[in-house]
Amino acid sequence: MEYFTEMLHDEIGQRLKVDNVLYHDKTEHQDLIIFENGRFGRVMALDGVVQTTEGDEYIYHEMLTHVPILAHGAAKRVLIIGGGDGGMAREALKHQDIEVTMVEIDRGVVDFCAKYLPNHNAGAFENPRFNLVITDGCKFVKETDERWDVIIVDSTDPIGPGEVLFTQEFYGDCKRCLTDGGIIVTQNGVPAVQPQEVTHSFNRLGAHFADVSFYLATVPTYQGGPMAFGWASDNADLRQQAAATIQARLEKAGLTLRYYTPDVHVAAFALPGDVRKLLV
C-alpha cells in the first residue's frame, strides 16, 4: 500500500502516503489500520476514515476537553463516550482534581492504540483517577445512575457504530447523566462538507438543553476546513465567560498547552455567517 485514500465524502477525498503499515486487521466492530506518514507520524483509520494522527491530535483533544472543563470551572467528574485512543483522557486528567470514566465499545481499539499510539494516552490508562468501561455508550448512559459535570462525546462520524451517538434519545440520556449546570460537548464534523451534522445536532440537543451552540477548531487531517464541536448546557453564562476568567482557571490548573489558550477558547465560539445559518 503506497497511499491511504479516504473517501468519507462522495465529492472529495484525501490521500496520505503510507511509509509503513504497523497494523491492519478487522476488530469485532471495525476495520482498523495504523500506519506511518512522514508529515503526520502515526495515523489511525477506522473503516477507511482517518480518526487521529500523532501530528495534529493535540488540537482536537485539547479543544474538546479544556473548553468545557475550564468553562465549567468546578468540574470534578468527566465522562468520555468513545475516545479509545486515550487522547481525551490524557487531556482531562491534566486537571489534578478530575476523575475520568471512559466508555468505549471496542476493546480492540483501546489495546491497539495503547500499543501503537502510546503518546496519545501518555499513561492515562494507568492513572488511578481513570476508569475504563467496555460497553456500548448509548446503553451506558441509559442505564447508569452516576452523574458527571462534563460529558465529552468523542465519536466517529455518524456512520456504522457511531451513528447512534448522534440521536435525540442519546442526548436526552446524556442530559440525565449530567449534574446541575453540567456541559456536554460533541464532535460534529466539518460544516463545509457535513452541514447536516451541525443542523441535526443543534435541533436534537436543543430538545433537551436551554443553551446550544458550536465552537470551531481546524484539525488539518479532518478535510474540508474548520470542524465543529457541539456545546450544550442549561447555563448560558458558561459559554460567554471572559478570557480573563478562563486565564485565571488555566493558571490555577497549572497547565501549559500546545493549541488551546483562553483567547482561542473565547474566539472559537465566534461562528462565521455560513455556520450560523445552519443553526435552524
Automatic annotation (TrEMBL):
Homodimer or homotetramer. Its EC number is 2.5.1.16. GO terms for biological process: spermidine biosynthetic process. The keyword Phosphoprotein does not apply. The active site is at D154 (proton acceptor). Keywords: Cytoplasm, Polyamine biosynthesis, Spermidine biosynthesis, Transferase. Catalyzes the irreversible transfer of a propylamine group from the amino donor S-adenosylmethioninamine (decarboxy-AdoMet) to putrescine (1,4-diaminobutane) to yield spermidine. This is Polyamine aminopropyltransferase. CDD domains: AdoMet_MTases (cd02440). GO terms for cellular component: cytosol. InterPro entries: PABS, PABS_CS, SAM-dependent_MTases_sf, Spermi_synthase, Spermidine_synt_N, Spermidine_synt_N_sf. GO terms for molecular function: spermidine synthase activity. Pathway: Amine and polyamine biosynthesis; spermidine biosynthesis; spermidine from putrescine: step 1/1. It comes from Aestuariispira insulae. Belongs to the spermidine/spermine synthase family. Residues 1-234 form the PABS domain.
